[in-house]
Design brief:
The protein is built from 2 helices and no strands. The protein has one domain. About 10% of the residues are buried. With about 50 residues, it is mainly α.
Length: about 50
């Protein structure tokens, strides 16, 4: 339960960083947001693959 909450929080924070980085014209913030979203999706993929 806690893991799913943290994954949703991480994905939403990453999406917010991508959107805010685009508005602020900050490629570093967009990159950090993209890495965060990808890390969440790969962790979800690993959990689904294990089950």
């Amino acid at each position: 339960m806690v893991v799913k909450f943290l994954q949703v929080l991480g994905a939403s924070l990453g999406a917010f960083a991508i959107i805010f980085g685009e508005a602020d014209d900050s490629p570093g913030l967009q990159g950090i947001g993209l890495l965060l979203v990808l890390a969440v999706f790969f962790s979800l993929f690993r959990i689904v693959k294990r089950n």
